[in-house]
What does this fold into?
Amino acid sequence: RPAPRPPLALRPRRLPVTRIEELIRDPYAIYAERVLGLSPLDPLDRPPDARDRGIVLHSVLRRFIAETVGQMPGDARARLMRIAEEELARMVPWPAERRLWRARLERAADWLIAGEAERLQAGRPVALEVRGAITLDLPAGPFTLTAIADRIDRLDSGGLAIIDYKTGKPPQPKRIRAFARQLPLEAVIAEAGGFTDVPAAQVERLLLVGVTGTGEGGETRCLGRGAEADFDPPVERDRLVALLARYDDPAFPYTARLRPQFIHGTGPYDHLARLGEWEGGEAEEDGG
It folds into this structure.
């Protein structure tokens, strides 16, 4: 199993929150991306995928939320679908995919609008797709954690809610606590006042809104705050500092597939890690 140990001077001093899960699961991918400077190329005639759907969904919702920031209008459904038509025409060059994605949004529209109306009863959006960052003091020097939050609401109680939109079912709280740390780490940044034009305040809740177009239209996961709940920003910060500090030791390796739970399929750097040469053998050894 590859476990490179690059010199400290070559190790990254900056990562986005979206790459922390990769650092936990497959540190070798961070090594290939951030130390070797390798990026996967899109194949020729790449078919549209979940990433494309996510980009379109975020574009549609950004416009819809901006237009309905005060209160949900009576023509909310028609407005949402008009925006969807415009964004699909602008961003999706594949006619068949446009029809499929429009149908998915149409099936999710009532559920999505009801959820947005409920969120407006608790507060108001103060930032959409807003950039943020904090600097952490580590043994080898400062380390910068960056983020782009889909949406931050100022709640009527005075606290903040951070909302993330996805095209698919949101992860379970157990997985979030173990691996999917994006939103809890965005809470760390928000409480430090690290998001542009969003003053520091306590983050009271995290919401993952999964737009699926099946069943009721989607699924929302709400994470509560506190030591016995789903996230606790001071604890999250300490966990992150402990994780990153390990990589400030030149002897600590970027091990391939360190924690492969919930990894489905292959990653863009698995061929460099020669995954097929060792994965099956290690599984047999572990089982024997």
User: Anything to note?
Assistant: Confidence is low (pLDDT under 50) at residues 283-288. DSSP finds nine helices and six strands in the chain.
